[in-house]
Amino acid sequence: MxxxxxxxxxxxxxSEIEERTKKVEFDMPSDQSVGSLLRTLVASKPNGRFLEIxxxxxxxxxxxxxxxxxxxxxxxxxxNPELIEVASEAFVGYNRVQLVCADGKQWIKxxxxxxxxxxxxxxxxxKYSAIDETLNLLxxxxxxxxxxxxxxxxxxxxxxxxxxxxxxxxxxxxxxxLTKMNWSTGIIIATKI
Length: 193
Prior knowledge:
By secondary structure, this protein is α/β, with parallel strands linked by helices. Helices cover 35% and strands 22% of the residues.
C-alpha cells in the first residue's frame, strides 16, 4: 500500500551530494521521484550499460548507481566543470562511474562505443538536440527516460511548444513504445523495439 513516501531507501551518497548541491546553489536537480524510477529501471538491467546526459551535481546519478549491480557501468556527461567537480568528489573510488565534462551534443555525435540499456536525458542534448543520435545509442529493449515534460513556471517563452513537438516526434517513431506519465515533473519513458 502506498504511504506517500518517495522511496523506501535513499541512496547512501544522496545526502552528501544534496549538501554540496546547496553549497554551489544549483537549483535544477532531478527530484527524488525521478531518481527512484531510474533506480528501478537500472536494476532491471543486470550487467547493464547506462548513460546520463546532464550530470548536474550527481543526485540522479546516485540513484542510478544504487540500482546497478557489480558488473554494470554508467557514463554521465555535463558541460559545467563546477558541477562535474561536485559529482567527482562524491563518486571518488567508484570505478563503474565515468564522469565526462564535455558538450553533450558533441559527445553524443562522436561516441563510438557500445549501446546503452538505459539513457536518461536530463539536459538539452539528447532531448531537444541530437535526439536521433541519442536514440541510436539505445539497445533493443532499452529504456529512454526524459523528465521535465509538464509545464513549469520557469520555462522560457516557447518552451511548451518545444516539449509538445518532442512528444509528438517520439510518439510517431515506429521503433519506440512510449508511456507519458503525468507524475513528478512529467516523465516520458520509451522502450526501443
